[in-house]
Amino acid sequence: MSGQKIRIVKKNDEFSMEYQVGDIFEIDSTWYGGVNVTSRTGIPLSLDKEEYEPWDEEAAGEREVDRYSYELGVMDVFCEMTAAGVKKLAMSHPCDTRQERNSYLPEVKKLCKKYGVKYYPEDEAFITELFPAQANRGKYNFLFYYTDDVLEEYLRLKEEQRRLQETGGYTKQKSYETACAFGRLLSYSQEGIERLIQKAAEADRKE
């Protein structure tokens, strides 16, 4: 079954932002309760059988949405969630180059104006235990927020991490605490944070 595609029809993990109903994934492997796939950000996902259906693009008579449109759709959702207060801080998916990230800028400005939120072009990804390092190091993305204090808190966390790393004080406990603080800023529950940390560790071990 590896290599075949599936389409998400139900979402059991309400905390995960790594997949949504309608997303299409290629199967990496199977397990007794479903399949394993990899999200766009490199996080491994274990999906239950009830969450997906086989996907045959030709049989469906449809084509997959191009990546540019897909990423804009994701950012639209994040801007709406930020404006509604569901998320204090949201991040676009990482881009490989600054040029690729900036290609979305005209539309990002329109989205932020539409929802009344602000954006910050991040050129130095915040690497913590929350997300796979290999999928984010050296990448570029946008941050979305409603009030300036949220961005200030994010930048403070990054600066504190840098200072601790330079002075040798970035212990395993501090690394964990930083990831948790980052997760809370992204409005994840503690349960969701723990799950993301575990999945990120699994993804990094595979590299």
Question: What would your notes on this structure say?
Answer:
The protein has a three-stranded antiparallel sheet with strand order 2-1-6. A three-stranded antiparallel sheet has the order 3-4-5. The protein is of the alpha+beta class and 207 residues long. Helices cover 44% and strands 18% of the residues. The chain folds into two domains: 5-60, Roll (SH3 type barrels); 67-206, no CATH class. Helix 2 packs parallel to helix 4 (105-115), helix 6 runs antiparallel to helix 7 and helix 7 crosses helix 8. It is built from eight helices and nine strands. A hairpin with a 2-residue loop joins strand 3 and strand 4 (34-38). 29% of the residues are buried.
Most strands sheet? 3 strands, antiparallel
How would you state the average pLDDT, rounded?
A: 90
Write the H/E string, N to C.
Answer: EEEEEEHHEHHEHEHHH
- The structural domain count equals 2
Summarize the structure.
The chain has 207 residues and is α+β, with helices and mostly antiparallel strands. It has helices at residues 57-60, 67-83, 98-102, 105-115, 133-136, 148-167, 172-185, 190-206, and strands at 5-8, 24-26, 29-31, 34-38, 44-48, 52-55, 89-91, 118-122, 141-145. It folds into 2 domains: 5-60, SH3 type barrels (Roll), CATH 2.30.30; 67-206, no CATH class.
